[in-house]
């Protein structure tokens, strides 16, 4: 499994169909390709957000090679961050 590091800004969907209200950060296409080359479908990742370990979290495709990682309430509480904050991935 490849290791990558980057810093991302936490966003929130205002109006995005079923994703409305979701808190997430975007995984750039070049990083997603390093993790799983040629993939355009959802896939699971593990690692750390800041210093909080995560495992079996899905990256969801958003088109154009972009993926997002959704931060549920428990994960946001664990890292102590919300929309607009930066997170080290």
Strand adjacency order, main sheet: 2-3-6-5-4
Structural class, from secondary structure content? Answer: alpha+beta
Count of individual helical segments = 2
Low-confidence spans? none
How does the major sheet shape up? 5 strands, antiparallel
Could you give the distance between the termini?
15 Å
What does this structure look like?
With 89 residues, this protein is α+β, with helices and mostly antiparallel strands. The chain is built from 2 helices and 7 strands. A 5-stranded antiparallel β-sheet has the order 2-3-6-5-4. A two-stranded antiparallel ribbon has the order 1-7. A hairpin with a 2-residue loop joins strand 5 and strand 6 (66-70). The longest helix has 7 residues, at 29-35. The chain is globular. It starts with 6 loop residues before the first strand and ends with a strand. 12% of the residues are buried. The mean pLDDT is 92.
């Amino acid at each position: 499994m490849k290791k990558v590091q980057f810093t991302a800004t936490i966003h929130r969907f205002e109006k995005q169909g079923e994703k409305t209200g979701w808190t997430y950060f975007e995984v750039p296409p070049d990083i997603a390709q390093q993790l799983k080359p040629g993939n355009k479908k959802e896939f699971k990742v593990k690692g750390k957000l800041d210093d909080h370990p995560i495992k079996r979290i899905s990256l969801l495709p958003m088109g154009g090679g972009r993926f997002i990682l959704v931060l549920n309430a428990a994960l946001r509480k664990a890292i102590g961050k919300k929309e607009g904050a930066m997170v080290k991935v």
